[in-house]
Specification:
three-stranded mixed sheet, Endonuclease, Chain A, globular, 145 residues, 5 helices, mainly alpha, 3 strands
Length: 145
Amino acid sequence: MVDTVSKKVRSHIMSRIRGKDTKPELLLRSALHRAGYRYSLKKYFPGIRCRPDITLVSKKTIIFVDGCFWHGCSRCYKPPKSNQEYWIPKIQQNVQRDQIQTKYLRTHGWRVIRIKEHELKKGSIHIDRILSTIHQSVDRRSRKP
């Protein structure tokens, strides 16, 4: 069954989608704070050509919370039914940009953690696993000479 939403309604729906302070980001930030991590939400740092969602500056770690649709999640992504000639290349460009950014940041000494939106929607078990991954990543970095 094809979704028959008018262009005006679809435009309104798309305009309501947030680019920052999304529910998954807020959930992760809250969990990080409870776990004792202090982070920066500052989007611009010298030498970084991207806008991280969360930055653990003292640990030189950057965390991205990637929306499943916007970042072409291999598990959740479903191609749009309308305006495919715009959206499909857009999503592909986002995925390619993510790969380039991750490589760039790693070559400049940053640890990069990418978390998919669906991982934060599944409840506290997944959040505990994500926090454990972050802790292991940060702990590994701090032990290096």
